[in-house]
Design brief:
By secondary structure, this protein is an all-alpha fold. The chain is 76% helix and 0% strand. The protein has one domain: MetI-like fold, CATH 1.10.3720.10. It comes from Kineococcus rhizosphaerae.
Length: 263
């Protein structure tokens, strides 16, 4: 047996992939998307609050927002997941039951909110301050101006960064398996890992990685397209020229005198 056959049987065993494919589709892919989307939605709401606190003129709001951002951006994701998932396990049993699944979502939401908060803050502060001053001159309150004019423009500026953060959450969702999920709650990585341990073959893990690529790679290209669209702006089509316009452009202009009169 050559080294190529050994690598093919270890990583590209079609039989092992076919055996784990139904579990990856029905359980792993579904739970990965549920964890990622739920964490992103919760994290986005928290991030907007953190961002608005971070740009506030009050130190009592800015300082807690900065501490929150520094803590959850500075800690490794796996450490945050273990601290939340294991530290609050007793408290969550009365609300969520014995499953650590919701705590994993909360941990990822806290992590993502710290990054998303900085993204939102940068986008809002990038909006020209004249926008806010113009709204105030029209009689709008500060909160109404931020809600209707400034914040929507700031969010539009950072849409590519938001998609990139969702991609990071999809990949970090694989760390939730450290909390010991139930069989029906396993995500892509845990399904592939369990199948790899049972079969003694790494092909199920390779297939799980393919599913991650199927989710993240198209989103990456979407981000690039959206970012390029925002940078170049929307092109305004020029109206077609009539025959008279073309003749006027081709005709030589009449010479003018010193004061602009025709010679």
């Amino acid at each position: 047996m050559t080294w190529f056959d050994t690598i093919a049987r270890t990583f590209l065993d079609g039989h092992a992939m076919l055996q784990v494919l139904p579990q990856l589709l029905a359980t792993g892919l579904r739970n990965t998307l549920v964890i990622s989307v739920a964490a992103t939605v919760i994290g986005t709401v928290l991030a907007m609050v953190v961002a608005l606190m971070g740009i506030s003129t009050s130190r009592w709001l800015r300082v807690p927002a900065r501490v929150y951002t520094d803590v959850f951006r500075g800690l490794p994701a796996i450490l945050t997941i273990l601290l939340i998932g294991q530290g609050f396990a007793r408290f969550s049993q009365s609300v969520f039951g014995p499953s650590p699944y919701p705590l994993g979502i909360i941990a990822l939401a806290l992590i993502s909110s710290a990054y998303l908060g900085e993204i939102f803050r940068a986008g809002i502060q990038a909006v020209d301050r004249g926008q806010l001053e113009a709204c105030r001159a029209l009689g709008m309150s500060y909160g109404r101006a931020m809600r209707l004019v400034v914040v929507p423009q700031g969010v539009r500026r950072v849409l590519p960064a938001l998609v990139n953060q969702f991609i990071a959450i999809v990949k970090d969702s694989s760390l939730v398996y450290f909390l010991g999920l139930l069989t029906s709650e396993r995500e892509l990585f845990r399904v592939g890992q369990d199948a790899a341990v049972l079969s003694g073959n790494l092909s199920p893990l390779v297939l799980a990685g393919v599913f991650y690529l199927v989710i993240t790679v198209p989103l990456t290209h979407v981000v690039n397209v959206v970012d390029a669209r925002f940078r170049t702006g929307r092109r305004v089509p020029t109206p077609p020229k009539s025959g008279l316009d073309e003749v006027a452009e081709l005709a030589p202009s009449a010479p003018t005198g010193p004061r602009g009169s025709s010679l």
